[in-house]
């Protein structure tokens, strides 16, 4: 069933202040929230991403969508509302990127496995577990809800290099 004219939200880029703010809890689970979730999936796919957090479309709320299969498997579409990591184990170090930091890719240390408590689009509390890439995406997206970007996990030196690269791109009008 093809959707007509999905509303695509523009993804805001670093250093937009909304990205550094802690999102507010979602308290109303209504038709508007369902619509926003659909729009977030559409916006994420349009931007070629596997995860998108509401602050990235300038909505400072604790809501994120993830699909590490990138549209290949509808069962892998995950909506996490007011999520909280309740258990984690192991360690993984992989390259990470972010729709709000285009062209920047750096290795980030994350937990190998996480368990999350969150609400679904109806407000029901659910638990989601993920390992490897899914665990990475979950941690990355929940960070967004706390105003944290993946570059905040880098060493001071690496982070400074990244910020310098961004400044250069901005100067050249490529950011
Ligand atoms: Zn991101």
UniProtKB/TrEMBL annotation:
GO molecular function per UniProt: metal ion binding; peptide deformylase activity
Alphabetical GO biological process terms: translation
Residues engaged in binding Fe cation: 98, 140, 144
Co-factor binding comment: Binds 1 Fe(2+) ion.
Keyword Iron: yes
Domain of life: Bacteria
Record keywords, A-Z: Hydrolase, Iron, Metal-binding, Protein biosynthesis
Entry cofactors: Fe(2+)
Enzymatic reactions: N-terminal N-formyl-L-methionyl-[peptide] + H2O = N-terminal L-methionyl-[peptide] + formate
Catalytic residues as annotated in Swiss-Prot or TrEMBL: 141
EC number annotated for this UniProt entry: 3.5.1.88
Short name of any one Pfam family annotated for the protein: Pep_deformylase
Function per UniProt: Removes the formyl group from the N-terminal Met of newly synthesized proteins. Requires at least a dipeptide for an efficient rate of reaction. N-terminal L-methionine is a prerequisite for activity but the enzyme has broad specificity at other positions.
NCBIfam families: pept_deformyl (TIGR00079), PRK00150.1-3 (NF001159)
Family from the record: Belongs to the polypeptide deformylase family.
Protein name: Peptide deformylase
């Amino acid at each position: 069933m093809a959707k007509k004219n999905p509303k695509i939200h523009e993804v805001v880029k670093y250093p937009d202040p909304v990205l550094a703010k802690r999102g507010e809890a979602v308290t109303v689970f209504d038709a508007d929230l369902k619509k926003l979730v659909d729009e977030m999936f559409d916006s994420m796919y349009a931007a070629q991403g596997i995860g998108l957090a509401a602050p990235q479309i300038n909505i400072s709320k604790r809501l994120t969508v993830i699909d590490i299969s990138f549209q290949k498997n509808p069962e892998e579409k995950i909506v996490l509302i007011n999520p909280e990591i309740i258990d984690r184990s192991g360690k993984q170090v992989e390259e990470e990127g972010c729709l709000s930091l285009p062209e920047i890719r750096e290795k980030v240390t994350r937990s190998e496995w996480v368990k999350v408590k969150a609400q679904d689009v109806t407000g029901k509390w659910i638990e989601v577990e993920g390992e490897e890439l899914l665990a990475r995406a979950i941690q990355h997206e929940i960070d967004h809800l706390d105003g944290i970007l993946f570059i905040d996990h880098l060493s001071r030196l690496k982070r400074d290099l990244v910020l310098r690269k961004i400044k250069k791109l901005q100067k050249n009008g490529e950011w």
